[in-house]
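note to self: dont lose this again. the chain is below, predicted strucutre after it. 300 aa total, dont forget to put it in the shared folder this time
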Amino acid sequence: MGIINAGEFIETVHIKGLQVSLVSSGDGTEIIYHKLQPGTDWAITPEEGWNAFEYLYIISGHMRLQTKTDHFELKIGDSFSENPVRNHYLFHAIELTEFIYVSSQPVFHHFSFVSKEMMELTVSIEEKDGYTSDHCNRIKQISMLIGKTLKLDSRQLLRLNMASFLHDLGKVKVPLQILQKPGKLTAEEWEVMKLHPIYGKEILADTGITLLVEAGEIVAQHHERFDGKGYPLGLSGEQISIEAAIIAVADSYDAMTTDRVYRKGIPKEKAMEEIQNCRGTMYHPLIVDTFIAIKDSINF
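---
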């Protein structure tokens, strides 16, 4: 049971699976309450020019902490601190988890509101593109399953977590008459549509937040193909980041299996077959093999 009542919060931000509430603030120090739903990820990352002391204490629940080289279990009464943060740390809620986070420099508005704004904007644009509001979260879930199976390090997983959810953020700059056109796009319209990965990178770069800037580099590549015939940069093979290669598979699977305004989704098995058929052309062979290996863990 938590030890803080909702009435004690100064401000609260809700992001998918996560509640972040400012409890107290003064002299640059902030005390922030976090509640993570099971399966939700949270992170602490190094930031250029950021020299804060950061500390968290588990009030309830159970989390797994992943560093670049190891895993640790955190339960009630456990704590974690760094001064300053020099590494990437990924926290994964195994069950409903509450913790108090203390930072000696203000962080609440710096990250929580920007992240919330980016995520809400992404969900909004996906809905305008004919997807359901859960599309972004499904891409993130599949991507993280693949990434963890491949044993990506904590920094890669953090970037993958953000980029997979925000992959189509750049569509906000695509005119609605193109985005919602029911028929085939003209050659000129398609050239505009192909710029959305670059637009997404630019939007995230403008936040100035290191994690989002790095996620933007991945967003820019999520429509590249293993054979070099993708867009917008025409990258191929290992030129494409592993995180972007993962998102490409996850996004294609969800696009094929999801009902859209103009067509019905295809069965899960048929989508898996299509992805296997494009192994080594559209998709990185290792990512396809890993995706197929974990297919029974994907329930949508």
